[in-house]
Amino acid sequence: MPSGRAELLKINLRELEIDPDVNLETIAEKIEGYSGADITNVCRDASMMAMRRRIEGLTPEQMRALSKSELQMPVTMMDFEQALKKISKSVSATDLEKYEKWMAEFGSS
Fold it and tell me: pTM value?
């Protein structure tokens, strides 16, 4: 269900500025099967993409001269797309199948 994943995204992104082009429902669909930790990693990486974009081409001195507020760039849909290319889900469909079989046999009813 994408809405649960969208809620996880909102929790992970609550302290970040998000560009209006970001569609959390679309991202939620793309992260189907991702664990909570995987989703956190995608959000963290997307936020780092925004900062990397801000400091690209600057000298170390110029980077040090930036204030914290100047480093705060909104996270864009492209940042998420790049993060999703780098971070894949850590739980496979086979793992989930094994878990479901185990729960069916031994889980509480």
Answer: 0.74
